[in-house]
Automatic annotation (TrEMBL):
Alphabetical UniProt keywords: Hydrolase, Metal-binding
Native species: Labrys wisconsinensis
Location of the Sulfatase N-terminal domain: 3-337
Protein origin, superkingdom: Bacteria
Name assigned to this protein: Arylsulfatase A-like enzyme
Length: 500
């Protein structure tokens, strides 16, 4: 079997024509849909970026035990599992979080890998004394930097070296992917992952992709929304959205190049193709930008998924509930590898069915859906809840756990999925580097609510229905037990663990 896995970041399902989107022409996503199984009820698991990837690789939910962090020694990563069976796994990515403290164990699971530099705040080009005043005047005041320690500083420097379309990191990722196919097309037993940070913010695309969405904006560069409530002037918000539309158009074009290669070499007959994303991104819906700060609305958690299996090449829609943890087991299934016992996900190639699924941010609400309702249950006080990180790899996104955090650590018993490995049980404190960035202190909405997606697909009005809520709570408790959630995960939500 040969497999190509395309992973975008922050690709909004509802923007794609094959999912009903009308704002952006997406002819190549629509073209893919015509040759694939299109999953209509596919959801995230753990968020944001690296927690989502840990779920994807391991086939297990992680948000009840851990925030952003590396793969752990007991994790089962699908690229390594196939590699151990003689199947070559190759990663091509510009997603620079793989090379930070909180992601540095992921790319090494592949047989080989390529890293394309320059996305967002990737510390790429060494300008020791940048002309900050000249650079700053190019950018809107909301995204200016005073030095490289700001997240905006590296981006401003990186853009100085991205001049032509061929320089864009996502363009290079797909070019490397096509090169891999040229070199290895006649070989068998490989898995290629083409992963681009796009359309993640900042929304920087070649000018020709921006042209159809011009807003008349004449101000400085405005392509990086803040995480939080919408406070921008209408013309600023329009420009931010237009830049997102442009970068989705770029992603559609790049996907089209890959589909052209499939057509040209008749790869549809012997090569599987899987395309998805890690999560969505709010563009003003619910009066918010981005993710991490608000309730986990459908725009963030209900994501696209396309699968072409050459052994079952018919196109069609799949209406059963599926989740990101199912992606890794699907690759194992494609390549004839048995999933490890710790795997929670189920191969998407089989008629596995769920009644419900849970998803969330570490330290935030636990959220559950059965495809009809979504229920979001928060602790009474996000900042004062008792919560712990369970890990033997104590690093945050860009730095290790602090001595202050680790001074309160104890040794916890093994969980059912840690292969008899005990873990550090580290109390979450407000002075943790993650607390106000992608942890409990970052969340701006904290009221428990229930939505009926059938009557209220935009989740505009929380529903009061005690019977439906009780049913969703029962699903939540059962799924948390299945995940071997720690006792405090139940206590902070005032849930009884109940019988297994």
């Amino acid at each position: 079997m040969k497999t190509v896995f395309v992973l975008f970041d922050s690709l909004n399902r509802h923007m794609l024509g094959c999912y009903g989107g009308t704002r952006i022409p997406t002819p190549n996503f629509d073209r893919l849909a015509a040759r694939s199984k299109v999953y209509d009820k596919h959801y995230v698991g753990s968020l944001p970026c690296m927690p989502a990837r840990r779920d994807l690789l391991t086939g297990r939910l992680t948000f009840l035990h851990r925030s952003w962090g590396p793969l752990e020694p007991f994790d089962n990563a699908f690229p390594e599992l196939v590699k151990q069976k003689g199947i070559h796994s190759h990663l091509i990515t510009d997603h620079y979080h793989y090379w930070e403290d909180g992601g540095a164990t992921y790319h090494n699971r592949y047989s080989t890998f390529e890293f394309v530099r320059g996305q967002e705040s990737d510390p790429w080009k060494a300008m020791v004394q940048p002309h900050w005043e000249r650079l700053r005047e190019k950018y809107h005041h909301a995204q200016r930097a005073t030095g490289p320690i700001s997240k905006y500083g590296p981006y401003m420097i990186n853009r100085e070296f991205i001049k032509e379309e061929k320089d864009f990191p996502s363009v290079q990722c797909f070019a490397h992917g096509l090169e891999f196919l040229d070199i290895n097309r006649d070989a068998d037993d490989w898995l290629l992952q083409i992963e681009t940070f796009d359309p993640h913010e900042p929304f920087f695309a070649p000018e020709r992709f921006k042209e159809p969405f011009k807003t008349g904006w004449n101000g400085p560069i405005r392509d990086w929304p803040r995480y939080g409530r919408v406070e921008e002037l209408p013309e600023e918000a329009d420009e931010l959205r237009a830049n997102y539309y442009a970068i989705v158009s770029l992603c559609d074009f790049l996907l089209g190049q890959l589909l052209d290669d499939f057509d040209r070499h008749d790869m549809w007959r012997d090569t599987a193709l899987v395309v998805t994303t890690d999560h969505g991104f709010l563009l003003g819906e619910h009066d918010f930008w981005a993710k991490n700060r608000m309730n986990m609305y459908e725009e963030i958690v209900h994501i696209p998924l396309f699968i072409h299996d050459p052994r079952d090449p018919g196109a069609g829609r799949v209406s059963r509930l599926t989740q990101s943890v199912d992606v890794g087991p699907t690759f194992l299934d494609l390549h004839g590898v048995e999933p490890p016992a710790e795997t929670q996900g189920m191969s998407l190639l089989r008629e596995n069915r769920r009644e419900a699924l849970i998803f969330g941010y570490f330290g935030g609400a636990v959220n559950v859906t059965d495809g009809r309702y979504t229920y979001h249950r928060y602790p009474d006080d996000l900042k004062r809840q008792e919560i712990y990180q369970y890990t033997v790899m104590p690093t945050h996104i860009t730095k290790p756990f602090t001595p202050e955090e680790l001074s309160g650590a104890t040794l916890a018993r093994p969980f059912a999925w840690t292969k008899e490995v005990p873990l550090l049980k580290v109390p979450v404190i407000e002075r943790s580097p993650m607390f106000d960035n992608y942890g409990p202190g970052a969340i701006l909405e904290n009221d428990t609510r229930l939505y009926d997606l059938e009557t209220d697909p935009g989740q505009a009005a929380p529903l009061a229905d005690l019977e439906a809520e009780a049913r969703m709570v029962a699903f939540m408790r059962a799924l948390m037990r299945d995940n071997d959630a720690p006792p405090e995960a139940f206590a902070r939500l005032k849930l009884q663990r109940g019988d297994a």
